[in-house]
Amino acid sequence: MEIKRSDVRFDGQEFWLGLDVHHKDWKVTIRTMGTEVRTMVMPPDPRKLHAHMTRNYPGGRYNSVYEAGFSGFWAHRQLVGLGIANRVVHAADVPTSDKERRQKEDVRDSRKLVRCLENGQLQPIHIPDPHIEHLRSLCRLRERSRSHLTRLKNRIKGHLKYYGISVPEDSAYRHWSGPFITQLEALCSEPGPRSDCLAITLDALREESRRLALIMHKLRAHCREGEAARITSLLRTIPGIGPKTAFTLYTELQDIERFANLDKLNSFLGLIPSTDSSGDDEKVTGITPRSNRRMRALLIEASWVAIRHDPELLRAFSKLSGRMKKQAAIVRIARKLAARVAYVWKTGTPYKPAVPNG
After folding, report:
1. Which of 126, 284, 339, 342 is found 20 to 30 A from 53 (Cα to Cα)?
2. What angle do CA 354, 357, 358 make, to 5 degrees?
3. How confident is the model at residue 279 (pLDDT cuts 50, 70, 90)?
4. Residue 345 CA: distances (Å) to CA of 228, 257, 268
């Protein structure tokens, strides 16, 4: 008796899928019961992957994984919605042999991912709530706009110095006030390529300034109500944390409860030391390079402000500076600031500065 393919079922059998995702296609490796059954190239469409699995392996339980990157989390949400237990992992957390590192290619990557998934070696990363993810995109756009604005200002300063054009380096120069911009515009009155260069760069500066103001207006509007308003208002009670820092903390940390303790939070922020331990020898090589770079830089910057407004932090900073460089001391202050962020967020109570002992 001939068995039709449609009669074959895999009820309850586990299938493991490693996805190497790219813009134009996905490399997919399928394993089950410790055996690789197929490797294929397919369009980047979760629905087509689900259709393939249900058509060829009906009744199975499907588990998939891909590395976080440019593709974000839209594929994860669609895969989960289709009934595929998907995980998104950090690329640096995927166990990799020296051979795989030296002979890197898409098919090898998908095979490596699915093998590690089947063996239970992968720890998934946090998947943000879509609303917070959208806010995070706007907050990151603000950071990119601010960086571009700084580059334009440096370009204008370089132009002035290159041609020996002197301007008073007063507070107007440092803060790029309206009168200072007007003064620069007056330098463009003389016809010629040099004036054209300055005028065009000033136009770009004005346009980027308007764009940054619009982004901040939109960000404030989105954070005026609901959970975002509550959390950012609480965070702003901490010395050193203003509106921009509070917005970034909220959108990058997303859910403070996902950090089991302060060590986990500091690890995410990149405020822990790198260590190299072998036998009885242990070498500390500064703060870890793996971090949320936006948050680490922002918290360190906020810490410099905090020590000017919080006597307790200033006392701690002064004590630390007596035995280490100030740059190292401020990192430890940033850890204290992170602890205050966690406390205020978790308890839902505004921060109250400690009263110095007489």
Report:
1. 126
2. 140
3. very low
4. 11, 9, 16
Contact, 67 vs 95, CB < 8 A?
Answer: no
* Sheet containing 35-42, strands listed edge to edge, beginning at the edge strand earlier in sequence: 35-42, 26-32, 14-21, 61-67, 85-89
The residue among 118, 139, 161 that closes a domain is 118
Q: How far apart are CA 98 and CA 288, in angstroms?
A: 23
Spatial neighbors of 193 by CB under 8 A, at least 6 apart, are: none
For residues 230-256, average pLDDT: 93
Same domain, residue pair 253 and 341: yes
pLDDT of residue 14: 96
Torsion over CA: 114, 88, 67, 98 (sign): negative
Asked if the structure places residue 295 within a domain, the reply is yes
Instruction: Look at the chain and report how many structural domains it folds into.
Output: 3
Write out the residue range of the structural domain in which residue 86 sits: 10-118
Based on the domain organization, do 158 and 250 belong to the same domain?
no
Of 338, 246, 323, whose CA–CA distance to 291 is shortest? 338
Kindly report the backbone phi and psi dihedral angles of residue 26, in degrees, each rounded to the nearest multiple of 5, phi listed first: -120, 135
Does any domain span residue 3? no
